[in-house]
What we know:
Blueprint: E1 5-6, H1 8-41, H2 45-48, H3 50-73, H4 75-95, H5 99-127, H6 133-161, H7 166-169, H8 171-185, H9 199-222, H10 227-249, H11 263-293, H12 298-305, H13 307-347, H14 356-381, H15 390-419, E2 422-425, E3 428-431, H16 433-454, H17 474-482, E4 484-485
Antiparallel strand pairs: 1-4, 2-3
Helix pairs in contact: 1-5, 1-6, 1-8, 3-4, 3-5, 3-9, 3-15, 4-5, 4-8, 5-15, 6-12, 6-13, 6-14, 9-10, 9-15, 11-12, 11-14, 11-15, 11-16, 13-14, 13-16, 15-16
Amino acid sequence: MTLPRISQKIAVAVVFVAAMFISILDTTIVNVALPAIGRSFHVAATSVDSVSIFFLVSLAVFIPASGWLGDRFGGKRILLGAIGVFTAASALCGLATNMTELVLFRVLQGVGGGMLMPVGMAMLYRAYPPEERVRASSVLTFPTALAPASGPVLGGLLVSDVSWRWVFYVNVPIGLAAIVFGLLFLDSTPESHPGRFDLAGFLLAGLGLASLMYGLSEGPVKSWDSPDVLGTIALGLALLGVLVPHELRAPRPIVDLRLLSNRLLRAGTIAILAITGSLLGMLYVITLFYQDGRHLSALAAGLSTFPEAIGVMVGAQLASRVLYPRLGPRRHAALGAVGMALFIAALGLVGATTSLWVARALLFGMGLCLAQVFVPVQAASFATITPAATGRASTMFNALRQLGGAIGVAVFTSVIVAIGAVHIIAHHAVANLASYHAALYTAAGFALLGALAALRISDEDAAATIQRSGRHEPAQAERGLVAIEL
Length: 486
């Protein structure tokens, strides 16, 4: 039996979207299960956070190596291998018999997760020419928006009705399906000669990012003046400080900082760092607000957050089909970020008795605007990057996006802690909603920083990605996503 030949645009998109979905989902779904994991292993709440923290640290270590590995051994081989490692580690996490095993398997998950996103993104942008990348970017909004919003809902259902182990098992069928589909339909990607592996750069970047991520994750928990937190943040900054001159001198750097001289990539990377920090931090804060401030269950909080994902998916179609060709990436992304900031700030006005439908409508609007940032920024950022440099550019883009998310959660959580999540009224501890509101206003400020960065995007540089009405055959771009070649 001869299998139908599927367009490589479809094949890469399907595998990468599935991989992104389970990787991003994992960051939010596991948080819901932490209390149940602590009870199962008789571990204190302060210790069970290591399940999340060591995953993020491992992720940060292996992101820098992903671009070199994809170029050296071929994108298909590394992408499917990374999905395989992530999937196997997910199954092992579900089978863990104690906290030590679980943390070790989470580290292994981070190895796979750190490689799959940069390699997959590089393959996607190599498959789609610049004039079709706005369509590719709209595809990427699906896992980017749906996964973090789905985590609390799915996690709440699994923990309540089945077992915490299923927050890990849920990755397995998706991962296996992506691997089988990729083996059948992905073409082998050519290997290149990226030069000798930059071991010093890998160690400096990996350990530097890992130390910084650890410090940012622990800061709100242990307090920012803790020697442990201050020491790891200082170490991370020092290592990254040494990394910069080393990579600028290296003939084949593992983190090609010279690519930041490309103004499109530089502006897009800064914008995505700020917007990701705003998004992930806001989702974390609003979940806490629902559960601790409004006393909703984890499942109800997740369901009340989910309108954000619907807004993004609707907004992605509006962005790619209507607004991007008319506005261009600069105005499109900047207006989207300003709109996002306004909706997040409006969430800061939601009180103890405000209808939850008001909050849900604001989250839908925020998601709608978020798509107007993600689609143009991702479409434009790589427009003038050569195919040979795409892997290295994707590595840097994803490393800083990951760092942005960690910064957002750390900063907004610290705002809540600084103001006080509770206050005493008539000798009773009552949720202090002002602390959550202040954190949401801070998230709105991050979105405005993203708008300022978006204003540095040059429409002229990104002209190849803009298809004006009447200048191109519209079906041509569509075919990359929907055609099946027999």
